[in-house]
Queue: 3 jobs
Job 1
Amino acid sequence: MSSQSKSGLPPSDAPPIRITRHDLARLDALLDSPTYRQHPGASALQRELDRADLLPDDAPADAIVGMHARVTCIDDETGARHTLTLVYPHEADVDAGRVSVLAPVGTALLGLTIDQRIDWPVSGGRTLRLRVLEVAPADH
């Protein structure tokens, strides 16, 4: 991914992301729920789901950022490492490193593979240039 939008999401011509049918079904249900339908991140997540390549549920997921996966990223600008777990909104806890899929960085990480990059705008006008180093898939 060579270019990124200011929102931290891949541009419309980005290579497709990959998610399992199970994750897609659960995320579609999340977006259909009255609780999250009007969430500020809902439309961005829907755009990502619309462009995703679907994987069978039994596909190896060790290199793909799916729901409940633990992701280790590095900021290519500073060398700082971040470990995050991608979760549903009600499970989010920033202090514990659990990031909602409806947060810009959560939506941007969904479906990425090792060595793919995202730009993540943070306060102060700085942008984190995160590159996925490792993915530990969710325990099923």
Note: Residues 11 and 71 are 21 Å apart (CA to CA).
Job 2
Amino acid sequence: MTTDVCAALPNVREQRPLGYWLRHIDGAIEQRMARLFAADALRRRDWQVLNTVACGPLTVAEVDETMAAFRTADEPTVRPYLDGLATRGWVRIDPDAVALTDEGRAAHQRISAQAAALRKQLTACVTPEEFTTLTTLLQRLAAHLDTLTEAA
């Protein structure tokens, strides 16, 4: 009986589901970024927070809101990452705003150039148009899933 049911399903070794590919891609990006950021003793999340603050100045709440997709029950705020960047002298945290320091701006520019080169390498297998289409489709899927979550 099990054989009949399994015969009707696609061979998951050949046709993996969307979730598999999303996790696989995220894991591959995580590994590459870990190597990229190792020289600066940064983690991917440190970089994401630094890159977010570079768009500032922002409040801590605005940084948290921007990073909402990465926050979890175990990490409900990115404040520890901000504190780590402040300890390095890369950000200044005031009651009203978080902003890059001159040293942070220089670090962001240097690391941003490295991240752009990595992004180019990671997406070399698709055309710019295909990448735009892929990103648009993933955004649409995410918005749809958010709607389903809100309705539940």
Note: Residues 142 and 148 are 10 Å apart (CA to CA).
Job 3
Amino acid sequence: MRNKSFTALVTFIIVALTTAAWWTLGRDTTREVDPATGAVTGPYEAPQVIACVIVLVALVVIGALLLPAWLAVLGVSLPFTAAWTIQASSTDDSGLWAVGAVLVLVGTLVGGTIVTAITRGLVRNRD
């Protein structure tokens, strides 16, 4: 069993890195307008989303190896959702940011749980 100081430190680092991932990878919310058709895309581009997913998966894997599974999942899901919500709520007048926040939270919780289960399963099979 790891001591509480180690668990707290690893959790803090994962929370900080998760928040940094959003603020570096998720903040570009520029919408692109196709001059020929007038179609608007965005605000997120595919490379931006892929990079975010890769970072979050890596953080959950690290957390799953060093922390209790529930803490690894919450340590990524809650700060990512909070950072997303702060940015989205400040730029959306329609109120739909709240629906998006729920979807981001559910998606990161489910995704994190799946990644944790796979990580733990691979570690058990290796031992």
Note: Residues 97-126 form the longest helix (30 residues).
